[in-house]
Write a structure and sequence with these properties.
globular; alpha/beta; about 25% strand; six-stranded mixed sheet
């Protein structure tokens, strides 16, 4: 595509892809052979792929997406492909605030990524703010230091659920201990 942009921000439609392929994203994805199928037929994924095609070399993509698109059982293929095309910069998991920010039962996240031409090991910022008394009252949302985490993109692809649940629910001490344990050699590392 000849139209390249430095920043693409969006809130693509959510939900399950229809079998009729009546939506723009569904029509576009059906005409493409190079992209994996959307996890759980989530209709927002074609917008990620199309957005990437319109990013300049140093461009950044930011979408409000359903969290489930990153944590379902069939996301591995999409996430592996995603890491070959985009470098995840930040994932802000708004699950804990879903009833305060949106009138929806579906948890949301803000996905930020930059264009890449090959899969490279990198880390990204995972932020998971929690609802506290101030947020419940509608006064403000506080981000505690415990809400900020640095995750390995490859570990996220290998098991996104485990990787983020550990970051979201472990205490700072438990998180440091589990992170340290992950750096230790396993039996597979020895001949």
């Amino acid at each position: 595509s000849s139209n390249k942009y430095d920043c693409i921000v969006g809130n693509p439609p959510w939900g399950t892809l229809s079998t009729e392929k009546g939506n723009t994203g569904e029509k576009w994805l059906a005409s493409q052979n190079s992209y994996p199928k959307s996890p759980n037929k989530e209709r927002s994924w074609p917008f990620i792929w199309k957005g990437r095609e319109h990013l300049s070399e140093s461009g950044v993509l930011a979408f409000l997406l359903p969290v489930a698109g990153f944590f379902l059982n069939d996301t591995t293929d999409c996430l592996q492909y995603l890491l070959r095309k985009l470098s995840i910069e930040r994932l802000i998991d708004l699950s804990g605030l879903r009833r305060m920010l949106f009138n929806a039962e579906v948890p949301a996240c803000i996905f930020c990524a930059s264009r890449t031409e090959k899969m490279q090991p990198h880390s990204f910022e995972y932020i998971c703010p929690k609802a506290d008394i101030y947020a419940i009252r509608g006064e403000r949302i506080l981000l505690a230091t415990e809400d900020y985490h640095t995750l390995s993109a490859w570990a996220f692809v290998a098991d996104s659920k485990k990787c983020t649940q550990r970051a979201m629910w472990a205490s700072p001490l438990e998180h440091r201990l589990l992170t340290y344990i992950d750096t230790l050699a396993t039996l597979r590392d020895f001949p």
